[in-house]
Amino acid sequence: MRAGLLAGREIALLDVREEDPHAQAHPLFAANFPYGRIEIDACTKLPRRDVPIVVLDDGEGLALPSALRLHQLGYTDVAILEGGITGWRDAGGELFRDVNVPSKSFGELVEHERHTPSLSAPEVKALIDKRENIVILDARRYDEYQTMSIPGSISVPGAELALRARELAPDPSTRIIVNCAGRTRSIIGTQSLINAGVPNPVSALRNGTIGWTLAQQELEHGQSRSYPPASDANRQTAARDARALADRAGVARIERAQLAALHADRTRTNYFFDVRSPGEYGAGHLPHFRSAPGGQLVQETEQFAPVRGARIVLADSDGVRANLTAHWLRQMNNDVYVVDGLRPEDFSVAGAWKDEVAPQPEVEEINVETLAQWLEQAPQQIAVLDFTSGVNYQKRHIPGAWFALRSQLAAALAQLPDGVQRYVLSCGSSLLARYAAADLRTLTKLPVLVLTGGTAAWLAAGKPVEMGATRLASPLIDRYRRPYEGTDNRAEAMQAYLDWEFGLVGQLGRDSTHGFHVV
Are the C-beta atoms of 155 and 494 separated by less than 8 Å? Predict the structure, then answer.
């Protein structure tokens, strides 16, 4: 495994545990690929059926069934990492905590190598209070910005920064301050503007909203400030500078006419990403290109493109965002191409991207009205199992439904009360429930049914719902709680997260499989 990473060969190292255990310890390039979602994720994230795949767990017994399931889906080169997490550690491999660790480690390396300028939370607060000539740009996703933000800041997700900065700070003497929740996106955003030659002084908000909170300073909530359109003059300047950056980093180029042949090439794993905003993508995009806003693609590279050593192809409509994103991905030791010569008419495919999923097993279905009658007449005889995410389950679910993880299905059944005579499976749309039904049928002789249309159909019919963690047949481990999300994080957890980030450069040195370089 290590030799393959060092050689740069294509390889997908897949941690098939749920996200929380994955976040506790994993190899640097192990992408979280939960067993329960394999049929939904595999076709899009592993587009080449003969790509070398290595699956691992930490003794939970998920690696073998995951490998078998991938074989059933047509993948021909699947192996299990000997010893899993313990085997990697015992062989001298470095283990990392948290999620999106390759990107976060790279961000720390960028700051270490380039000495990216930053200001502390009290320093920025003082500038705000004195009404200094500053503008604060929030590089996170818009939904994160709306949850909590620095007072007066404007939402400008990462890849938009170089395209929009000159509109938001036309006076070169205006200080630009870039923030995120923690460190990575503010470091990368700040260094993006510096690399792109924006004339303003630029600094990161050191430690982001975490640092702001630890300084006991108030955040705003529910804000909607966003960036304006870019003028032609500023776009042309930004495009020229971004192209120079990409060329300096060694980004390859490809013409529109070459895309069809590249898409048909089955000798390499090819990922095609449109790095513009989701709204622009929905209005029109190139065939075969998925939406991956550039800032998030740099932040979550191993989730968008879990095959290490794959070819990554980027497109935009302005010559700024793709080149800027590509120059970072290339420094992260990815094989990156930017599509040149695109015209407005090339962005001809409207609507959202639809993932290809594995063929769905045949299931017996039940409609909303029948389920409602059964639950009213004999609720103790019906076990409704909800396979949605734990977050969505707590927001709303069918009254009486149990939260269940497909990866822990046998253990979940043991938590149910006696007297159950049939199982009804659901999730948001019942897509995941259909795959789980096939697993459940191997564990029980009772009838197994799937709710047609899932919980969404239940809601559309005006049926009542419950909220909260009311019935947990499985633990809420499908998502790792980030210390920088939400508004109720403990100070100790936030400080521990920052301390962990500070140590990532040292871990990269001990791991040495990454091939990162900073230009």
Answer: no
Q: How far apart are CA 63 and CA 14, in angstroms?
A: 9
Distances (CA, A) of 71 to 4, 42, 161, 437: 21, 11, 43, 19
Q: What are residue 213's phi and psi, to 5 degrees?
A: -70, -45
Output the pTM of the full model: 0.95
Contact 104, 98 (CB under 8 A): yes
Classify residue 44 by burial, with Cβ atoms within 10 Å: 0-12, 13-18, 19+: middle
Distance of alpha carbon 199 from its chain centroid, rounded?
32
Q: How confident is the model at residue 485 (pLDDT cuts 50, 70, 90)?
A: low
Q: What is the mean pLDDT of residues 2-6?
A: 94
Joined together, the tokens standing for residue 235 give 């776009």
Q: Write the DSSP symbol of residue 320.
A: S
Model confidence pLDDT, tens digit, residues 40-75: 999 999 999 999 999 999 999 999 999 999 999 999
Residue 408 is given by DSSP the state G
Strand, coil or helix: 138: strand
* Residue type for position 383: A
> Could you please report the per-residue DSSP string of 191-229?
HHHHHTT-SS-EEEETTHHHHHHHTT-PPB-S---BPPP
3-state secondary structure 330-384: HHCCCEEEEEECCCHHHCCECCCCCCCCCCCCCCEEECHHHHHHHHHHCHHHEEE
Q: In angstroms, rounded to a whole number, what is the distance separating the alpha carbons of residues 241 and 174?
A: 20
Could you tell me the sign of the dihedral formed by the alpha carbons of 295, 296, 299, 303, in that order?
A: negative
- Pair 504, 105: CB distance under 8 Å: yes
Question: What is the pLDDT, as a whole number, of residue 319?
Answer: 95
Whether the per-residue pLDDT at 484 is higher than 90: the answer is: no
Which letter, b or e, does each residue of 345-381 get, where b requires 16 or more Cβ atoms within 10 Å of its Cβ? Answer: ebbeeeeebeeebbeeeebeebebeebbebbeeeeee
Average pLDDT for 28-37: 98
Q: DSSP 3-state assignment of 451?
A: strand
SS3 177: strand
Cβ neighbours around 259 below 10 Å, total: 22
Q: Which residue has the tokens 């159950």?
A: 420
Segment (H or E) for 21: helix 19-24
Q: Could you tell me which of 286, 295, 246, 291 has the C-alpha nearest to residue 263?
A: 286
In 37-152, alpha helices (H): 38-45, 63-72, 84-90, 101-114, 121-129, 142-147
Q: Are the CB atoms for 456 and 431 separated by under 8 Å?
A: no
**Cα separation of 268 and 312, whole Å?**
10
Query: What helix, strand, coil percent values describe the chain, rounded to 5?
Result: 45, 15, 40
First to last CA, the chain: 28
Q: What is the pLDDT of residues 405-415, one digit of tens each?
A: 999 999 999 99
User: How many residues in total does the chain contain?
Assistant: 519
Report d(CA 416, CA 414) in Å as an integer: 6
